[in-house]
Amino acid sequence: MSIAPLPIEEQVDEIISQLDHVFTTGEGGSLIATGRQILIVRTSQFFTAGHATSGVSGSQAYIRLLGSPSPSSQVTNGYIRFVAPDQIRTPTYSTERQQINIWADQSYLPMTLAQMAHSQRYLWVGFFGAHTYGDLHSAP
């Protein structure tokens, strides 16, 4: 049973071709992908956590996504962490852990939970020189 559509690589290419409205590339510049990782999401785990770091208490909601890599990828898992707007970080990919990490505004949690109910989901991160982009893509 295939959860994601077969042309997943082409779908990401289409998204990349439209990212010029997100990034300023300069005069006539275009985005050149220097790398990307695509996780076809199979299962997920939801966490609501409390913690203390150096005596400072905090909390965080996050989702761990597990699945399989697209044909051009090695990623096996990912995290979306929901944080206050001033705690958002640049998306990353850890080769050692084969893991995508995305920090999202906590106000996006309801939308992301709705996306998790969709049958087709993939998490991806792309690198374009000085630019990085990552998202959870889904379709009913």
Topology:
Layout: H1 8-17, E1 35-53, E2 56-69, E3 77-83, E4 92-94, E5 99-105, H2 109-116, E6 120-128, E7 131-139
Q: Would you write up a description of this structure?
A:
The chain is mostly beta strands and 140 residues long. 13% of the residues lie in helices and 49% in strands. It contains two helices and seven strands, in the order H-E-E-E-E-E-H-E-E. It has a seven-stranded mixed β-sheet. The longest helix is centred in the N-terminal third of the chain and has 10 residues, at 8-17. Residues 1-5 have low confidence and may be disordered.
Shape category: globular
What oligomerization state is this entry in?
A: single chain
Distance between the termini: 16 Å
Q: What value does the Rg take, in angstroms?
A: 16 Å
Main β-sheet, in a few words?
Answer: 7 strands, mixed
Average pLDDT for all residues: 86
Helix share bin: 10-25%
Helix segment tally? 2
What is the gist of this entry?
The protein is built from two helices and seven strands; from the N terminus they run H-E-E-E-E-E-H-E-E. It has 140 residues and is mainly beta.
